[in-house]
Amino acid sequence: VFTRKFTAMPLSFQKLTLSGMFSDNVTQVLQKLGYRLGKCIGEGSYCKVRVTERLLPDNSLQKLACKVISRKKASLDFVNKFLPRELALIKDLSHPNIVKIEKILEIGDGVYIFMELGEKGDLLDYVKNKGPLQETRAQLYFSQLISAVRYLHTQDISHRDLKCENVLIFSDNTVKLTDFGFARKCIDAESRKRILSQTYCGSAAYAAPEILQGIPYNPKMYDVWSLGCILYIML
């Protein structure tokens, strides 16, 4: 038996408390809310991404992706620092080349982030399967990525994990950024001064020299370096 306790949260956030936290209970809660989790399309040490179907009011089905994060498996640093920061940032993002978040549910020890599904997978798999992009397609995709990163930077947000795996390809020939697990604000809210980052983030193949050297760095400049790495891989 499970009980549901809703806490008012901004926009698409809902926090549910379950008594007797079992996977069957979670499945029942999700189904009551109109969500059915499907096959796993990505997996990390403490999270999985699953194809999801959402039942709409007209009884049609909407295909989504759901990032399922396990607090039990994650490090304390991630649970206490990076996860709250990610949830706070992604709910306010709105750009045609950033994956749209449909809903965020916190159920027991799990966090379920429902978002747009990139029908054609990520950019790295695309390059692996089809080889380098033609210049015109690379130019199209890269201009969209620049637009997304410019938007983030005008909001004083740095992604800090730009890589081909975090660029999803959609059937309408657009690409969108996803996975804001390392994103952070670049400006202090009170002083309005720039904040230098000291945390090692992202992947070594996309990391700027200062990150690899372990010295404080400008997170926006890190994003720009990583964009250059993505362009190199595309071509």
TrEMBL record:
Name of the protein in its database record? Protein kinase domain-containing protein
Secretion signal span: none
GO molecular function terms listed in the Swiss-Prot or TrEMBL record: ATP binding; magnesium ion binding; tau-protein kinase activity
- GO cellular-component terms in the record? cytoplasm
Q: Which SMART domains match?
A: S_TKc
The protein's matches in SUPFAM superfamilies, at most eight in alphabetical order, are given as: Protein kinase-like (PK-like)
Q: Which residues form the Protein kinase domain?
A: 35-235
Q: Which organism is it from?
A: Argulus foliaceus
Keywords assigned by UniProt? ATP-binding, Developmental protein, Differentiation, Magnesium, Metal-binding, Nucleotide-binding, Phosphoprotein, Spermatogenesis, Ubl conjugation
